[in-house]
Each structure stands twice: as structure tokens, then as C-alpha cells.
Design brief:
Distance between the termini of chain A: 60 Å
Strand content of chain B: under 5%
CATH architecture of one domain in chain A: 3-Layer(aba) Sandwich
Shape of chain A: globular
Largest sheet of chain B: none
Strand order of the largest sheet of chain A: 6-7-8-3-9-10
Distance between the termini of chain B: 55 Å
Number of strands of chain B: 0
Radius of gyration of chain A: 21 Å
Helix content of chain B: over 70%
Number of helices of chain A: 10
CATH class of one domain in chain A: Alpha Beta
Shape of chain B: globular
Oligomer: heterodimer
CATH topology of one domain in chain A: Rossmann fold
CATH superfamily of one domain in chain A: P-loop containing nucleotide triphosphate hydrolases
Structural class of chain B: mainly alpha
Largest sheet of chain A: 6 strands, mixed
Number of strands of chain A: 10
């Protein structure tokens, strides 16, 4: 099903990201924070059933995009369709109905710290269903088993390592059998083993459960191994879309700089500053706080 | 008037306008927040375990502080009133003086101030940290309203715990007064208890203390959860919210105490 209707122009052709069955369609998205424009006319499609990576330099609004798509923030302009429903016009109750079909993995896991692993995973089931305790136990243990942490069911979040906390959060994110999961920087601060585990889980869960996965990340190499399609954000728009291999050979300097990790380029190494010599010699005196 | 002076005055006026706007903005937001709490109370009542846990956290865990404070306040009250009343040969009345002071004023007020410092800060910082670590956003993303699940049980826990803590404070205070007056200073025990029994009225005195502590419980719990919920998601933001909760609660309790006292005494 293509949710982009006749009045909805298609996003620019994205080689490597083919598909007419898009679960998310974003058109003309504009969002600013204060005087800073984060997005200005962003168009983007997410194909149903795919693993899609959203990448880009820091501050390009990757996490903000997730917040907008999930209705946690409202754009100034533009349209965001989730399975045909306009997210920006949903009332709170409808938004909550939509979120029951969605899972989200936060950067730090966002586990509830006053309850144990088992109760964290059972939390959405207890809130939204009236399943008998026996069935809840069955589902929770199944999901914990899927992420390899069935044995940690009694542990408190404070006792878990960063990687374990993210896996528990992943078990919680899939406990309601969502249609789509958003991963916000899932690899940040993880050791290589935990990174590899999360990476494989994203792909395996996506294929086994028939999900759609959207992964916001900086990690070019890691995500390249699992993403069907990658969108690179820069200057408030999608700078490039395609498979990771296609992006590596992209003609745009911005894309090449990001994919190869060059320090300087269209994204400058130096934050805008007054003349170096003039500032060093005291011509421009930086204003400072009480700590100086 | 020089140009600099007029510029200074203009800046002060602008700051006053800004502060007033910010005050009324926060006041309005607080009222809406309170309404959201009230609307969601039935949800929390259907999950009594959440409330019982919060009564334990805010009430039971504050017991030692409240009991110690009550005990020493009662002792000081007895000592001070003994010194003054003995000049008139009325030292037998210290039981009545201590009980009236504790039940009507000191019990509810000091308990509320201690509550702000002990349980209020714990509530604000806990909720603020939940905000900073995305736990509240996580709930929203699981289609669970944090007001229902986090805020209302904590608010009700505080409202239930406060009158009980105030009663325990007063009881410990009377015990302290008895120890100081009867055991240490040698006031007649029979006179101590009989004067108290004769002069402290259940409806006028005890109920007035209970009414006050219920109002203080609502104010202290509301301010604590409001500040925590609206704190900036940073370490500094949580610290500021906690400080604001204590300062605002303390001032509100003292102002409210005057208003309630005037109202409760107004009928006489």
C-alpha cells in the first residue's frame, strides 16, 4: 500500500530504497528550535518491512526526527503520515492508540528504575491488556529469551550493564508486537560484543517478527551491515538516500565526508569563531561566567 | 532625569513585567497540572498498590525525622512555657499549652516543613531524574500517561501521609513535653493530663490541625511533583527543581497557615 496519495508528491527517487509500500511518508517537513531551523522541507519515505538507517552529523536533527514521527513534538509545517494517518493532527488519545503499534528504544534504554527487569518488560502488557498472569509470564520470558536475558529477569536496572539495559529495553519494545520499532542511537557507549549483539538482534527481530525498523545512528560501519536503506540528513533535508554501498560512492562532498569520516569538508571542523590571531592577542575578549 | 537613569528604570520595569508574566504563567500551568491530577485520581485508586508504596516512601521513611523533631519541639515547648508560667504559679498548665501549640499550629506546620525537606525533595528529584533519563518519555511512547502512572500515586501518597505524620509529630511532642515537664521539672502529672484533657477540644483544636495538615499535604505534594515533572532534563535542572520545591513549599505552607488559621478562627 502506498500511503502517498495523488496530492502527495513522491520523495526524490532513492536508488537502493525502492518500494511503494511505505509505512511512513514525510513531506515538506519544517521544524525550528528557537531561531535555529532543524528541518526545512524534508521529504522521506520508510518502506514497510525494511531496516532503514537515518544518519547524519551531530545536530542534524536525527533524534528530533524520531520525536516528530512519534508525535512527541509538532512541526511548524509539513506532513507526517504513519500508515496513512496524519500524525501531526492526531489527538492525544489517537496518538496513544498509534503508539501502541510502535516500539521505541531510547539511547539509554529508559528502563523504569524502581522495578525489576521482569516488571519492566511486563509493564506495557499490564497497562494495556487484561491478560492472566500466567500468559504475561509466558510472553515476558519469551521476549527476554529472544534478547538472551531470560536469566536476568530478577535483576534491577541499576545492576545491568549498558548493553544489557538496552537489550531489556528492546524486549520491552517488542512485547506488544509492534509494527515498527525506532532505535535512537542504539550503539552509543557499547563495547564491540554488545554492539554486535544489538546489531544482530535488530536484523533478526525485524525479519522474524515482520517489523519495520528505523535506526538513528552515527555508526556508519555497524549499520551498513544490516540496513536495507540509508538516509543521510544534512542542512535540514535528506542529502542522500540509498544502500550503504551506494552512499560511499555518492558524488556529494557532504555525503563522502560523513561516510569516510573526514574531519574537514562541507561540515567544518571549526565552529564559527573570530579571527584566531586577533582573539589570542586579546582584540576580542571572550565573555565568561563566574567560573573564570 | 538622565538618559542612563531612564534606561535603568526601563530595564527594571521590563524585568518586573517579565517576572510577573513568568509567575502567572507558572501559576496557570500549576492549576492545569492540578486539574490533570484530579481527573486521573480514579485511575490511581484502581491501582491501590501504587499509592500504598508511595505512602510508605513518603510517610514511613520520614517517620524517624518527624518523631525526633516532634519529641524535641515538645520538650522545648514545655521548658519555655514552664519558665513563663511558673512566674504566675500556673506551671501545671504546661500540658495544655504544649498540646494546644502542637495540635493546632506546630504539628501541622513543622511537619509540612520537614516533609518539604525530606519527602518533597525526594519526590522532585526522583521525578526530575525520570525526566532526565527518558523514563517519562518512555512511558509516553508506551502509550502510558506519566501523570496517571507516576504523578497521581505520588501526590496521593503525600496527601495521605501528611495528616498521619502531623498526628505522630504532635503525639511525640506531647510525650516530649510530659518528659520535660513532669519527669524532669516535676510538674504534677495529674494536673498535666487533666488540664490538657479539659482544655483541648476535639472539634475545635484537633480537627483544625487535621484540616491544616490535609491542606498542607495537598500543597506540599503538588509543588513537589509539579517541580519535578517540569524540571529541565539536566543535572542542574533537577537540582534547581528540587530547591524550588523546598522554597515554594515552605513559603506556601507559612502563607497558607495564616489564611487557614484566620478562616478556622473566623467562625468564633
Amino acid at each position: 500500500m502506498d500511503v502517498a496519495g495523488p496530492d502527495m508528491p513522491r520523495a526524490p527517487a532513492a536508488p537502493g530504497c525502492p518500494g511503494d509500500d511505505n509505512i511512513i511518508v514525510i513531506r515538506g517537513l519544517a521544524y525550528s528550535r528557537g531561531q535555529t531551523a532543524i528541518f526545512d522541507g524534508l521529504d522521506l519515505d520508510i518502506r514497510r518491512g525494511s531496516v532503514t538507517a537515518i544518519m547524519g552529523p551531530s545536530g542534524t536533527g536525527k533524534t528530533t526526527l524520531l520525536r516528530l514521527v512519534t508525535g512527541q513534538e509538532l512541526p511548524q509545517r509539513g506532513s507526517i503520515l504513519f500508515d496513512g494517518a496524519e500524525v501531526t493532527r492526531l489527538r492525544r488519545r489517537q496518538l496513544f492508540q498509534m503508539r501502541k503499534r510502535v516500539g521505541m528504544l531510547f539511547q539509554n534504554g529508559a528502563l523504569l528504575t524502581d522495578i525489576d527487569v521482569y516488571e519492566n518488560v511486563a509493564f506495557p502488557l499490564r497497562e494495556h491488556t487484561r491478560l492472566p498472569e500466567r500468559l504475561i509470564r509466558h510472553i515476558v520470558l519469551t521476549k527476554l529469551h529472544a534478547v538472551g536475558l531470560r536469566g536476568a529477569w530478577q535483576m534491577m536496572p541499576s545492576e545491568l550493564s549498558g548493553g544489557m539495559a538496552r537489550r531489556v529495553a528492546l524486549a520491552r519494545a517488542i512485547v506488544m508486537d509492534p509494527e515498527i520499532i525506532y532505535y535512537d542511537e542504539p550503539f552509543v557507549g557499547l563495547d564491540p560484543i554488545s554492539k554486535g549483539v544489538i546489531l544482530r538482534l535488530i536484523r533478526r527481530l525485524n525479519d522474524a517478527l515482520g517489523l519495520t525498523s528505523v535506526v538513528v545512528t552515527h555508526d556508519v560501519d555497524e549499520v551498513s551491515t544490516i540496513a536495507d536503506c540509508t538516509h543521510l540528513l544534512a542542512e535540514g533535508k535528506v542529502a542522500a538516500s540509498g544502500t550503504p554501498a551506494q552512499l560511499r560512492n555518492h558524488p556529494s562532498e557532504t555525503v563522502t565526508q560523513f561516510m569516510t569520516g573526514m574531519a574537514d569538508g562541507p561540515v567544518p571542523f571549526h565552529y564559527p569563531a573570530p579571527d584566531y590571531v586577533e582573539q589570542l592577542l586579546g582584540g576580542v575578549r571572550p565573555t565568561g561566567g563566574l567560573m573564570r | 532625569m538622565s538618559r542612563e537613569n531612564s534606561r535603568g528604570l526601563r530595564r527594571i520595569a521590563l524585568e518586573i513585567v517579565h517576572s510577573l508574566r513568568s509567575f502567572f504563567g507558572t501559576f496557570g500551568a500549576g492549576q492545569i497540572f492540578f486539574l490533570r491530577i484530579l481527573v486521573n485520581i480514579p485511575y490511581a485508586l484502581a491501582r491501590p498498590r501504587l499509592i500504598i508504596k508511595q505512602v510508605y516512601v513518603t510517610g514511613v521513611q520520614s517517620l524517624v525525622v518527624i518523631m525526633l523533631a516532634g519529641f524535641f519541639v515538645g520538650m522545648v515547648l514545655a521548658l519555655q512555657s514552664f519558665l513563663t508560667l511558673s512566674r504566675f504559679g500556673a506551671e501545671d498548665s504546661i500540658g495544655m499549652v504544649a498540646a494546644l501549640g502542637l495540635v493546632r499550629e506546630l504539628g501541622p506546620v513543622v511537619t509540612a516543613l520537614l516533609f518539604a525537606g525530606r519527602a518533597g525533595t525526594a519526590l522532585s528529584s526522583e521525578i526530575g531524574l525520570m525526566r532526565a533519563t527518558d523514563q517519562l518519555s518512555g512511558m509516553e511512547m508506551m502509550a502510558v500517561d506519566p501523570i496517571k502512572r507516576v504523578i497521581v500515586p505520588r501526590f496521593l501518597g503525600g496527601v495521605i501521609a501528611m495528616p498521619i505524620l502531623a498526628a505522630i509529630f504532635s503525639a511525640m511532642g506531647i510525650f516530649g513535653a510530659w518528659l520535660e515537664g513532669v519527669v524532669i521539672l516535676g510538674v504534677d502529672e495529674g494536673a498535666f493530663w487533666s488540664q490538657m484533657q479539659a482544655q483541648v477540644d476535639l472539634r475545635d483544636d484537633v480537627m483544625s490541625g487535621v484540616i491544616k495538615s490535609v491542606f498542607f499535604g495537598i500543597a506540599a505534594s503538588l509543588l513537589a511533583v509539579f517541580e519535578g515533572y517540569n524540571s529541565a532534563p539536566t543535572a542542574e535542572g533537577v537540582g534547581r527543581a528540587t530547591t524550588r520545591a523546598v522554597v515554594h513549599t515552605s513559603l506556601t505552607v507559612l502563607i497558607l497557615n495564616f489564611m487557614l488559621t484566620a478562616w478556622l478562627l473566623g467562625g468564633k
